[in-house]
Hints:
This protein is mainly alpha-helical. It has a single domain, classed as Orthogonal Bundle (Lysozyme), CATH 1.10.530. It has eight helices and two strands; from the N terminus they run H-H-H-H-E-E-H-H-H-H. Strands 1-2 form a two-stranded antiparallel ribbon. Helix 3 packs parallel to helix 6 (about 150-165), helix 4 packs across helix 8 and helix 7 (about 170-175) crosses helix 8.
Amino acid sequence: MQTSSNVRQIAISMLVILLSVVAMLGLAGYSHKHEFKPALTPIAPPPVHVADSAIREQKVQAAMWEVAKVFGRTAGCKDADPTLGRLVSEASLDEGVDPKVTAAVVGVESKCSPFATSNRGAIGLMQVRAEIWKDTFDFQGKVNLLNERDNVRTGTHILASYIKTYGTQDGVLHYQGTGTGTGCSTCDPTYVDKVLTLAGK
């Protein structure tokens, strides 16, 4: 009877030891599988659009400096708001035209007055004629030629398209008048010289 009791005690002790070992092994495996690992944050370069934006702003600032010099030589433009200089600079960069030439066209055409009009129906800073360009631009809806931004964007697009087609001198010539630069009784024969001289060309 005593021997049987001893055997039972030994069996229970061995079972306890066995369970303890299994439990320890289980815990060790759990902690190994689920040990805490801090998330690694890779060091990445700034997003491309941020870098592009910084480069763009540098170009705009450089263009604004050139535009300011042109405006400074132009009657009526010397006290122009810097916002206009930025509009001319951004539109010129976007259209791939020299900002100095665009600024000179603004100076010659309107003397930097957004409300300038002509007896031929030219309107605003760049004296855009709506009746000529009505099939290209939505003047009844999206484009307001008395709005400085719209006028500069529209005029610069037209100027750039002429310059890309005919070169700077003939492009400026085509910008005046009806789009041909010639055969215009009210056109200024010295227009191209005025614009290019003012632009420093």
